[in-house]
Amino acid sequence: MSRSLVLKVLRRLVSFMRRNLHTVKFYLRITRASEVARRYAVSNTFDITLTLLGAVLFSYVAGASERPEILLGLGIGAAVGSGLSGTVSTLITEWAERSRRITELEHVLLTKLRKTAIERAEKFAAMYSAVLSGFCPFVTALLITVPFMLAVHGIIPNTYAIVMSIAIALAMLYVVGALLGKYTGRRPLTYGLYTLLAGLLVLALTRFIS
């Protein structure tokens, strides 16, 4: 059911954007959906990257590097899970919040707002945020998993796949931090180093625990 819901949301969003590009820009501006979607996307991407970083290192210490198909399955499962979780949870949360906002406006304006531009804008904002919230961690998890795909097909050694996967995860953490710094008007380099340090801390703690 979750999968069909996600596909339905994606189809409606793409179809709507193709037909109404100017309207989309207007909706994004009045609902500030871009800011909300960016926060969800950054948070979920950061979470899945740290999770996979720890999982990959722990699997290596436990000896799973000899069977890259296990790590490949882990990565794909994490990608699908994070994508669905991010999309569905954000859609439910945002629609509930924006429905409350519409109700409050109706009380203030003393009129119904159903089937108006305001309601359509809020619905679009919820779907837009949900799609980005699920898409970004999904793609990130797949990128971190790519080395294990290569290892399964014998293109690179298993140990190289572990190192490459960890390197990709650390690079993604830096990029997420740098983008966050750019969007907030701060120094991208500093924020990138903050998120990179978080990744290194996860590696250190995972190695210590294992």
Structure report:
The protein is an all-alpha fold and 210 residues long. The chain has 7 helices and no strands. It has helices at 2-19, 21-31, 33-61, 68-109, 117-152, 158-183, 188-209. Helix 3 (33-61) runs antiparallel to helix 4 (68-109) and helix 3 packs parallel to helix 7. The mean pLDDT is 84.
Strand content: under 5%
Helix amount: over 70%
Shape estimate: elongated
Seen as an oligomer or otherwise, the chain set is single chain
Total number of strands = 0
The radius of gyration computed from the alpha-carbon positions, rounded to a whole number of angstroms, is: 20 Å
Query: What is the string of SSEs from the N terminus onward?
Result: HHHHHHH
**Largest sheet entry:** none
Mean pLDDT: 84
**Uncertain residue segments:** none
The total number of structural domains is: 1
